[in-house]
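Give me the fold.
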Amino acid sequence: MHWAILDSGVYIGHWEAGLYDALLSDVRKGFVVRHSAVVLSELRRGARGPAARQRIEELFRLARIVWEPTSLDWWEAGKLVREIGDRQGWEVNKRREFQNDALIALSARRQGAIVVTTNRTDFDLLKHRLNVSVLYP
């Protein structure tokens, strides 16, 4: 069985602009989608307005299995953020944002899942470093 985690940009693009129908159809045919606690938190944090909040609350209710980062994932994410952030010359806000991407990638790697994301810049850095599979629209 093949697993996939959808990153927040895929949900947002689909919900707000009707993007990624073909991609999501292909993902549903080839993978079992699991939810990331990190992605769900990102979506909830950004939900503005009652309709958006209702949509993410419904997604959370439907998420029967939610993958969470382990303490070792958090530990490794700290190292990744420091090393990659130093090499890229990132400021603190970018490092905080990247930490979530690192946690998503580490969770996916641990489960043997592919990450479906619109964030090519960050996940290109992570896929090579962590040997995690990534699919872009």
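DSSP finds seven helices and five strands in the chain.
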